[in-house]
From TrEMBL:
NCBIfam families, A to Z: PRK05422.1 (NF003843), smpB (TIGR00086)
Family: Belongs to the SmpB family.
Biological role stated in the UniProt entry: Required for rescue of stalled ribosomes mediated by trans-translation. Binds to transfer-messenger RNA (tmRNA), required for stable association of tmRNA with ribosomes. tmRNA and SmpB together mimic tRNA shape, replacing the anticodon stem-loop with SmpB. tmRNA is encoded by the ssrA gene; the 2 termini fold to resemble tRNA(Ala) and it encodes a 'tag peptide', a short internal open reading frame. During trans-translation Ala-aminoacylated tmRNA acts like a tRNA, entering the A-site of stalled ribosomes, displacing the stalled mRNA.
Gene field: smpB
Localization: Cytoplasm
Chief subcellular location: cytoplasm
SUPFAM superfamilies membership: Small protein B (SmpB)
PANTHER family with a match to the protein in the record: SSRA-BINDING PROTEIN, TMRNA-BINDING COMPONENT OF TRANS-TRANSLATION TAGGING COMPLEX
Identification of the protein by name: SsrA-binding protein
Keywords: Cytoplasm, RNA-binding
Signal peptide from the UniProt entry: none
Domain of life: Bacteria
HAMAP family, A to Z: SmpB (MF_00023)
Amino acid sequence: MSKNKKGDNTLAQNRKARHDYFIDEVFEAGMALVGTEVKSIRAGKANLKDSYAQVKNGEVFLCNMHVSPYEQGNIFNKDPLRERKLLLHKKEIDTLLGYTAQKGYTLVPLSLYLKKGRVKVALGVARGKHNYDKRHSIAEKAAKRDIDRQLKERSRY
C-alpha cells in the first residue's frame, strides 16, 4: 500500500508557498516527464521547495524542482534539476504571461498529484508577502486554533 491515504493523490507539496506568497489564482497543468521520473515521483521522491515556473517562447517550464533518480533506472535517469515542460492550453499560457508581465507576480508550484494516472501540478499565480503579512497570517492561525480548542472543550460537557 502506498504512503498516501486512500483518496488522497497528493505526491508532493510546497508547504512554504502559502506562507511566503499570496496565491491569487491556481491552474492545473500536466507535466512532460520520462518514465523513471514518474516512478520516482510516485515513490514520493520529489521536492518542490524553491521551485518556480516561467514562460519562455510561448511555453511554460517548471524550474528547480528536484526529482531524485530512480534506483532501478540506471541509464534512463535524467538530471534531477532539469527544466520540465508544463502542458497547458494556449489561452492559459497567455493568461499566465499577462500575470508574470506585471511587477511582483511569479508562478509557484503548490503541489504534485495524480489524476487518472497522470502526474499533475497545481500552479499558483503568487505575489510575495512582506514579513508583517507573514506575522499576521501566523497570528490568525493561532487565534483560529485557540477558538477551535475552546469550542472542543465546551462541547465535551
